[in-house]
Amino acid sequence: MNKNAQLLIDQGKMLPLMEEFYTIQGEGYYTGTAAYFIRVGGCDVGCHWCDVKESWNAELHPATKTDLIVDNAKKHSDTIVVTGGEPLMYNMDYLTSKLQKEGLKTHIETSGAYTLTGKWDWICLSPKKNKLPLTEVYENANELKVIVYNKNDFLFAEKQASKVQKNCILYLQPEWSVEKKMTPLIVNYVMKNPKWKISLQTHKYLNIP
């Protein structure tokens, strides 16, 4: 990558774009809502069960002008979800400023492992054991979504819940490859601990992106 492109990426004026698409939000608080997704390449959190491992290497995804990304997004929806990879590896100030100037709602899905940049209408924090969130992300999260792969993840979820603000909405979501095994355990856990809600990957049931 040449120095000029790297400078623009550092400024958030270009981003390694893996994909962008218009679909229905499948998880969490906004499940069922039409939204335009911007998936940014690059992630070093390294969850072994990640279902978009092809997003990890940012060099595989073309550096794309952020203005072009915004132009595409505004044609489809007023709700824009920025995801990854890990989008907070990049400065999100320019992207969210441009989106909000167009009157678009800005949502982010993040592990919280990097400095919180950008102005967000909704922050979905999905913490990972490999690289825990920063304090500032805990404090600003609107929803906490913990992926449950095994029984130990319930303990991890409670530790994470103790760090977010009181009005943050708490979700437990079964990891897809163990969904049939873990969902009954999550149902039982939520019934005993009703501060939690269940999130499912409904887009996979609907067979949409």
From TrEMBL:
Enzyme class, UniProt record, top EC level: lyase
Binding site for substrate: I24, Q25, G26, R39, T83, P209
A Gene Ontology biological process term: tRNA queuosine(34) biosynthetic process
Residue ranges of domain Radical SAM core in the record: 30-209
Record has Lipid metabolism as a keyword: no
TM ranges: none
Catalytic activity: 6-carboxy-5,6,7,8-tetrahydropterin + H(+) = 7-carboxy-7-carbaguanine + NH4(+)
A GO term, aspect molecular function: S-adenosyl-L-methionine binding
Residues the entry annotates as binding [4Fe-4S] cluster: C43, C47, C50
Co-factor requirement: [4Fe-4S] cluster; S-adenosyl-L-methionine; Mg(2+)
A Pfam family reported for this protein in Swiss-Prot or TrEMBL: Radical_SAM
Enzyme Commission number(s): 4.3.99.3
Protein function: Catalyzes the complex heterocyclic radical-mediated conversion of 6-carboxy-5,6,7,8-tetrahydropterin (CPH4) to 7-carboxy-7-deazaguanine (CDG), a step common to the biosynthetic pathways of all 7-deazapurine-containing compounds.
Oligomer and partners: Homodimer.
The protein's name: 7-carboxy-7-deazaguanine synthase
Originating organism: Aureibaculum marinum
